Each structure stands twice: as C-alpha cells, then as structure tokens.
Target: 3-phosphoshikimate 1-carboxyvinyltransferase
Amino acid sequence: MTQLWPAPVAAGPVRATVPVPGSKSITNRALVLAALADGRSTLRAPLRSRDTELMAAALRSLGTEVRDGTDGEWLVEPAALRGPATVDCGLAGTVMRFVPPVAALADGPVSFDGDPHARTRPLDTVLDALRSLGTEITGDSLPFELRGTGTLKGGRVTIDASASSQFVSGLLLSAARSEQGVTVVHEGPPVPSLPHIDMTVAMLRAAGVDVDDAQPNTWHVSPGPIRALDTEIEPDLSNATPFLAAAAATAGAVTVPGWPAATTQAGDGIRDILTTMGAEVALSPAGLTVTGPSRLEPVDIDLHDVGELTPTVAALAALATGPSRLHGIAHLRGHETDRLAALEREITGLGGDVEQTADGLLIRPRPLHGGTWHTYADHRMATAGAILGLRVHGVEVEDVATTGKTIPDFPGMWASMLEPVA
Ligand SMILES: O=C(O)C1=C[C@@H](OP(=O)(O)O)[C@@H](O)[C@H](O)C1
Ligand SMILES: C=C(OP(=O)(O)O)C(=O)O
Model:
C-alpha cells in the first residue's frame, strides 16, 4: 500500500507568495538544444525534477556533458553523439518523444525503456517518422532499440500528431542537425497543445535555426548550426496553477513571483480561466496575483491547447457553483494516465458527479466527502487532490511523491503556502 498524504484543509482564505521552480517544457527543450549546439551552454534556474534529470541523464548517456554550475545552473558541453547508450524515459513524454530524434543522429545502438505506464503512451508516430527518414528502429512503443549511423539525411515526413504535439516538437528540435533539414506535415484531427509547438519554434529561432511555420500544419526546419544557449528558464506556469487554484478555491490571494509578461508557456492560459471562474487576476512586477471569489463560477471551456491544465481546472470545477463542461481534451487519455477516466473516478469517489464525454468531462458539483484520492503515478492528479483537500476534510492523496516528476518538493511548498502569514 503506497503511503497516503493527508491533504491539509485550509483554515481560512489562503494568503501566500509562492515561488515556483523552472518550466519543465523549457528546461527539457533547452537541454536538447544545448546537446546539439555548437558550443557550451548555460541554463540558469533550470527545473531539477525527475523529468529533467531523466533528460539530462539521457543526453549524458549519448555523450553530452551536463554538469552543475555553482549557482544551480546546468552547464552543457556538446560532444559527438554515440551509442551504445541506454535511455530511461521514466514517464516523461518529453524524454520519450524528444530523445529518439537525437539518438537518430548518434553513431551506435540506443535502447529506450521507461515506467510501466510509459509503455502504453503513444509513441509509434515519432518512431515511424524516424524510420521514414532512414533510421533503423525495432519496436513501436517502449521498450525499443534505435540504431543510428551518426547522420540523418532528413526530408519530408507526414504524420498524424493528433495524439500529442510532442511528436512534432521532437522531430523539429533535432531537425537542423540533419543533412537536408526536415519538413513535418500533420494530417489528421487537429494537433493538441499548439502553444507547445510554438514554444519549440521560438526556442529554435532564438538559437539561430531557420524555421518556416507559415503554413498551418506544416513546419520546415532548415539544416544549420544550433547556437549555444545562455538562458534563464522561466518559472513553470502549469505547475503554478495548483497554488493559484488555492486562492481561487478559498477566496484567498496567492502571488507567484517572476510570472513572465510574455511567454510561450501554455500555462499562461490559467489567467483567462480563473478570470472566467470569477477570480481577480493581476499581473504586476511582483508577479501574478490571483484573488479568489466568494463563489466560484462554473466554466464551459475548450482546453485543447492547454490540456495539461485540466486536472487543476477539474478540481476547481468540482467546487464551483454550477455544472462545468471541459472539452477538446480526448488526447488526455494518452497522458501520464488516462486523465479523463482518473478524474471521473476520483472526483466521483469523493461524492462528486462527473461524467466522461467523447472529448472531455461534465462536472456537476455536489457536496464532497473525504476518502483516498488515487493518483495513478500522475503528478497532476496528486496536485488536483491537494486542491480539493483544501475544502474537503479527510482527502488522502496516494503517492504524493509522484509530484516529483515536475516539482521537487510539492508537499513542502504546499505546507509553506498554508503557513499563517506573520
Ligand atoms: O512539449 C511539451 O513540453 C508538452 C506538450 C504537451 O503534450 P501533449 O501535446 O501530448 O498534450 C503537454 O501536455 C505536456 O505536458 C508538455
Ligand atoms: C502531459 C504531461 O507531461 P508529459 O511531458 O509527460 O507529456 C504533463 O506534465 O501534464
């Protein structure tokens, strides 16, 4: 039996300032680009969590030097990429989708595996794409082996990226190092999480790579050098959302310092969502401050672009004053766990009324009671349970340590947030 974490109940309105560690998505893109770059990179304030440590370990195993600086930064020294190497993807979508294209540039065999549930996450699209670009791969999901020859010709690939934007991002991140560059064409139902592809394109361009994304569903990366990075990683705005939700759920006020005025992070979308739910949201030089309403409004919202915010929004919706409809998120069935099934089961288990639809959730608030909140190795399920626990006595979150996927000390941060202000 995994340990249960008694989710603390808020004694009153939560008032706190909560600094949030670096962005997972930016850190892992920066690590990949740094490993492929033309010189030594410095990544300042990177996220140090399971997903980013796994990315660093994967790149080290391929020959890259990733070491600690004196002030928490990561110093990355590229070297010839080579096998034999072993990559542990854990449950990280970014590792399992971004590293195979890097490994395709390496000379020698590279074997990949990950956590039990990682073996069920969609991956064949990126492996098929690499095969069509000339890489030899055995297998269609984890575990698999890839045999690089030290070069990748490149060319045009047509894929169906409707299950994950990471298929596109992964192919684009390594494409400049191929001989001819790579054109990725998406054909199929709309690609989810488009802001994450925009983030990839922006980071490539910032590193001097020529990317043409003028046509919808088509991205072309020209061959060429990737400039070494010296960059400060923004706070993780998606990881900030449970803390901001604490203000929304308790009529409190929470500030996250360092919230960027302009960003490619999808998590920035929380500002509009919380405003729609009745919160006051103010961006100032001090950071982003959310002040919760006395009554949380329900929402009818398409989360297709910002799917990773769903567990936070669903938890708040279960505490709102009327029924909410979350849609556009069928792809969440392939996330860390089937998040639609998990949210339905767990909120229902606390006495809520949640129904899955073809592409989302209907959440009708009901008085909730305590109980075990199962997390299915999903960090965002754990943080969703913590949000509900603020208002519902007796919620016990299973395996809260799973938050270490993207937050180094979630229970400690949550406890500090709840400490009374002196
Ligand atoms: O590229 C990225 O950094 C991510 C893309 C998104 O994946 P999907 O497109 O699979 O939703 C997002 O949900 C995930 O948390 C991070
Ligand atoms: C979907 C997520 O992660 P991953 O990068 O593993 O896909 C997430 O963090 O919500």
